């Protein structure tokens, strides 16, 4: 029998059905009423043994209430790569960062008793808050030139991991040679390596794509003559948002080749934002593919390139310059705009479409790129070739290269152990590539009624729909989430009074989060049947051991950008 320390990578659909209907009858949600309560000054809960029994029947995957929890069905062999990180690979180009120093790092505490097959959890509300707020980051955006108001007031961000380590990444930076700010969320699968790489590199590719011919030539001249290079980006990072160690020179070399090619285009004014986003996404994915084909004498660099290329990541990036908002999306991260209506309510305006099997236009695109004979095999069980959920992604060369190229690269670059990990061809693999990193780009001209933009990985959208997320942000801004519910006479009844008491208890047990991203994450994992925060559910969801956490939720990364309505309105009045 497998121990709890073994990595649970696949869960059978049969096991899910047993969990769904025979055990708790509530899908993948953990109902607080099904948990044994203990009187204690701290929150104390018990996770019953059926969770572990069901988890041991591992064959395929666990579908959720509105989603599938496993983004990529991994091969039988897996490995954990130890990574060393460095603060910034692009030292010559960095002006400064804004790290968050007020960070509390805390490990999950749990006790497992094999005889009883249950976990005893004991978290104080303050401990829950420390866990939820450990990766908080917020930053107020200054004016570009100190005179004209910026269209962005501030942004707030946070992350909560389900995988160990977290496979999500986030980035925020200001373009220093061109105007504009960029925000990105990157959701990795089959490991974090690809998400880590594109979170470090993509913004540089976009930034140089936007530069004029003259600026690019100045940067190239400085590089050639070993002089100080013009800074390209100013990052706004949490101190836990690390960079890889030892690959800075490789990344800069490939970025330099790219800007040399842009110089050769002889485009004096540079590319448009839409062109820059499309070129940068595709070029970075191309470079990731090339880097793994180059022989490395350094084993660490070789393994790093393999990890990045054979893992994958989806990406959602927003570029905001004054009233001009561009969103580039690859995969199933999502960007949603909060728009204030005439009556004061706020509604959701999606700026992206998920690239998965639920997107009919995406299916038509995919079917059109392959022979009709493959229509029955391209999508199996709502996954690309029966394996991958997103239909667009960075990396994932296993879905892009020919079988011959995969074999050649792996035999030349890998030892036997690595071959066992990477040498796996998906079934029905006839006419690659099946996957692309070409982004779908949306342009939106900001208006005074556009109040905020939410960019998040699918871990948030799996739990909350667009309208609920926008409502929570709007309520957080107004303070409505902290108001006590009113009790009207016409609804007065014993049952209704009991319901209201439960709601008040749920609201009164936690202080309001200052960071709106934390507020969203708290609601995503802790909302009960009344739509309110339940501390017992929060305790359980935050205390599940690594083997089980991924079965009930995904990594969650959220960035919320607030717009300056007065500055936007002033722009329209002046023009």
Description:
This protein has helices spanning 13-23, 50-56, 125-133, 193-210, 213-224, 248-264, 273-291, 299-310, 360-368, 403-413, 416-422, 458-461, 466-478, 494-508, 516-526, 535-543, 546-552, 565-574, and strands at 36-37, 43-47, 85-86, 111-113, 118-123, 137-140, 152-160, 168-175, 181-189, 233-235, 243-244, 312-321, 324-330, 334-340, 346-350, 379-380, 383-384, 394-395, 440-445, 450-456, 556-563. The chain is an alpha+beta fold and 575 residues long. Strands 8, 9, 10, 12, 13, 18 and 19 form a 7-stranded antiparallel beta sheet that branches. Helix 1 (13-23) packs antiparallel against helix 2 (50-56), helix 4 (193-210) packs parallel to helix 6 and helix 5 crosses helix 6 (248-264). The chain is globular. The relative contact order is 0.15. Mean pLDDT is 78; it is low at 1-69, 74-120 and 481-492.
Helix content class: 25-40%
Characterize the largest beta sheet: strand count, sense, and whether it forms a barrel.
Answer: 7 strands, antiparallel
Helix count, DSSP H or I runs of 4 or more residues: 18
Overall shape: globular
The span between the termini is: 71 Å
Low-confidence region ranges: 1-69, 74-120, 481-492
Mean pLDDT comes to 78
Rg, Cα atoms, Å: 24 Å
Give the topology, please.
Blueprint (H helix, E strand, L loop, with lengths): L12 H11 L12 E2 L5 E5 L2 H7 L28 E2 L24 E3 L4 E6 L1 H9 L3 E4 L11 E9 L7 E8 L5 E9 L3 H18 L2 H12 L8 E3 L7 E2 L3 H17 L8 H19 L7 H12 L1 E10 L2 E7 L3 E7 L5 E5 L9 H9 L10 E2 L2 E2 L9 E2 L7 H11 L2 H7 L17 E6 L4 E7 L1 H4 L4 H13 L15 H15 L7 H11 L8 H9 L2 H7 L3 E8 L1 H10 L1
Antiparallel strand pairs: 1-2, 2-5, 3-11, 4-5, 6-7, 7-21, 8-9, 8-10, 9-12, 12-13, 12-18, 13-19, 14-15, 14-20, 16-17, 20-21
